[in-house]
Amino acid sequence: MTRRLADAKTVHGLIARLAAQISRHNHGAKDLVLVGIKRRGVPLAERIAAQLNAGRKSKVPVGAVDITLYRDDLQMIAEAPIVRGTEIHFDISGKTVVLVDDVLFTGRTVRAALSELADFGRPRAIQLAVLVDRGHRELPIQADYAARVVKTGRADLVDIFLKETDGRDEIVLTRK
Amino acid sequence: MKLRSRHLLGIEGLDRSEILTILDQARTFREVLDRAIPIVPALRGRAVVNLFFEASTRTATSFNLAASRLSCQCVSFSKATSAVTKGETLLDTARNIEAMGVDGIIIRHAAAGAPHFLARRVKAFVVNAGDGAHEHPTQALLDAFTLREKLGDLAGKRILIVGDIAHSRVARSNLLCFTKLGARVAVCGPPTMIPPDIVDYGCEVFYRLDRILEEVDVVNMLRVQQERITSSSFPTVREYRALYGLTADRLRKLAPEVVITHPGPVNWGVEMDFDVADFSQTLILPQVTNGVAVRMAVLYLLAGGEATPEKAEG
């Protein structure tokens, strides 16, 4: 059974809400940097940055992490995944880093991203922003900003489609 | 994308897309090497052994560092202090080391085909780090990586390999690799050092350096192996330098965009004058840096390619 959780207009609103929460919580966007988790966290981070930048002179830097090399399940996957590369072209030391991803599920991806960020410098703080928190955590990790909290079964699928990667904005839940 | 073989035995067994997979992967690792903490946990808990039956500083160190940067342990074996001096065979040495639980064996051996021999008999993956005058695939891959970083796509580029083509595993692997990437390769050296059937590899042959030097994008110099200097196939050092050396004179006449590579270690004053070291288009040191990234890519793709790594008993 498939259910649409959000259409394009709702997705737009959810991203605006995340940007507003991030701005309010950090008193503007001073010393703030955004880092998207590949793949869909990256366009999300860029859209949030665009909203934070609106009407401001200084721009919030946006980077991207590819957590493939930090996964704890390389032995379990059939073949070595091709690593697309991490791009953080600014210093994160002393900054407040907002890590951005589309869905928060087990927390293992975020754990890997935190390890990777630690190899780039020592941020003042790291916060986590996600479009959908679907529960079923396997690690003590929580989002600072979740635009939607959805009750799901362990085997359900939450699919996020974004214009930049998929040609349309939509969130779909498939019950198993 | 996965390599078809679980081993890296030579460029000969790779197709163009596999070579590009390794080179693309290496670009990611090149970025890792520039980080504040240039190490990733990708191969945590794995172990490889450097099984070097021939002298090497650069290649052994490069593989060792590549493994370390992937959080993979690397133990080194040197022939001089091993049971090989007591008459242990290659297969026994390898099986014993494998029994200690290593995932991969990086081997350099004076006998051509030694890595292939091992690959058929051990469960670990095998990487050829140089076998006799046969192949040295990671050198070819790091040369291709370095040239692509500098020149972009190698298709249609003219690459000249200069030196002792007959006895050089670098020459053979580079010739295969550059050709598979679409480059037009020529070789140049003394007639005694160029095997007549080399044209079967799809390259041109030149016996005089000066004329062809004006027409190429890349000059890939080879090291003169010391043991050849006393052999009958070698003229004298003075004659070799005069005819085939990249001298200060020849360097001045080169077009400014021509790039120069050398696998190292260089015999300064024999195949190249020291002036080449300071030439802005000389890529010798970038080659060494890139070598670590390329070897990381090879180890990562081979170690990650198995669903569950087979461990030897013991």
What does this structure look like?
The complex is a heterodimer of chains A (176) and B (314). With 176 residues, chain A is of the alpha/beta class. Chain A has a single domain (2-174), classed as Rossmann fold (3-Layer(aba) Sandwich). Helix content of chain A is 26%, strand content 27%. Chain A is built from four helices and eight strands. In chain A, strands 3-2-4-5-6 form a five-stranded parallel beta sheet. A three-stranded antiparallel beta sheet of chain A has the order 1-8-7. The mean pLDDT of chain A is 91. Chain B is an alpha/beta fold. Chain B folds into two domains: 16-136 and 289-304, Aspartate/ornithine carbamoyltransferase (Rossmann fold), CATH 3.40.50; 137-287, 3-Layer(aba) Sandwich (Rossmann fold). Chain B contains twelve helices and nine strands. Chain B has helices spanning 16-33, 58-69, 90-99, 114-119, 137-151, 169-180, 209-213, 226-229, 237-244, 248-253, 275-278, 284-304, and strands at residues 47-52, 73-78, 104-109, 125-131, 158-162, 184-188, 204-206, 218-221, 259-261. Chain B has a five-stranded parallel beta sheet. A four-stranded parallel beta sheet of chain B has the order 2-1-3-4, with helices on both faces. In chain B, α2 links the parallel β1 and β2. In chain B, α1 (16-33) crosses α5 (137-151). The two termini of chain B are 32 Å apart. Classes of the chains: A alpha/beta (176), B alpha/beta (314). Chains A and B meet through α3 of A and α1 and α12 of B.
